[in-house]
Amino acid sequence: MQISIDKARDFVYANGVLWEQALFHYLFDGGSIERLYQCLLCYKNADGGWGHGLEHDIKCPDSHPLALEFLLTMGRDMKLSLTEVLIGTVDWVERNRNEDGSLKNPASLHKYPHASWWSNGGQSAPDSITGNLMKQGICSSSLAASTSRWVKSNLSLEHIQANDWLFMAYHAHDYYLNLEDTPENRPFIEATIDNILKCVQNTTEKNYFTIFQFASSPDTRVAKAMPKALLDKFLDDLESSQREDGGWGDEHGLKHWQPYHTIFTLLVLRNYGRL
Fold it and tell me: 243 burial class (0-12, 13-18, 19+ CB within 10 angstroms)?
């Protein structure tokens, strides 16, 4: 069917939480970004960290890395400036590092509802958080240095090349593609893009959405590197897969993720001139 923004709006407002409604309003209805900031700040704690179920899979109210990682992923996906709401957050990250540069999770993490795949612990990898803080222009030199040490052991060329799960390519993507394109960094940047393209070749239809987390608009490096016919195939699928209820399905069939999925899919289609 023809894409309907009205039906998408109905789906997001019927099923999304307040910040998702504010995000839709900002992106598609001329809403205020200050209103979006107000909604997001409800998930920020006094210590500068983030929690309270901002990332839907972990409901712990105490500050933990996954909530911040998701907020920064939102900034990446939607091209949002988040510096206004991130005051004090870099300090929180610096205070919650282990000696090897990995990130600490609160002891209370599993006291609250959480998805089964987080039962063994929360997010401890600092790569995506650090990379996206660089993208926002607020990463500290201390955090950049400790993450640089961490990636030498955990995100080497061999690690990048061995990845075969498209979704997990975000670790290398969010870190290396936010570094300066120097001769030292270029092999890692190129390996990351090559790995994403390799994974794309083997992806299934239910994972097409994930491709655009790396190619949200035509000006991204991954989109430029992807064969046009292949990119058009994935865009055609997004364009034709809006449901009658106005939403788009997600990889795992989890309805609580579908309002965000729907907002991002609409934005991708607009970025590529498909609306």
Answer: middle
Token pair 């990845």: residue: 163
Q: Report the candidate in 153, 138, 158 with the shortest Cα–Cα distance to residue 93.
A: 138
Helices (H), 79-126: 89-95
> Which ranges constitute the DSSP H helices of the chain?
5-15, 18-28, 33-41, 65-78, 89-95, 127-136, 141-154, 157-162, 170-176, 186-201, 208-211, 221-225, 228-240, 258-271
Enter the pTM of the model: 0.97
CA nearest to 144, candidates 90, 88, 214: 90
Task: Please state the φ and ψ torsions of residue 114, each to the nearest 5 degrees.
Answer: -155, 155
CA distance linking residue 272 with residue 74, whole number of Å? 19
Helix 65-78 / helix 18-28 crossing angle, nearest 10 deg:
20
State the amino acid at position 67 in one-letter form.
A
Inter-CA distances, 115 with 59, 60, 133, 143, 254, Å? 9, 11, 26, 29, 11
Closest alpha carbon to 264 in 8, 35, 67: 8
> Phi, psi (5° rounding) for residue 272?
-95, 10
Evaluate the CA torsion angle 29, 35, 41, 43 in order and state its sign.
Answer: negative
- pLDDT, tens digit, 9 for 90 and up, residues 143-202: 999 999 999 999 999 999 999 999 999 999 999 999 999 999 999 999 999 999 999 998
Residue 205's SS3 state is helix
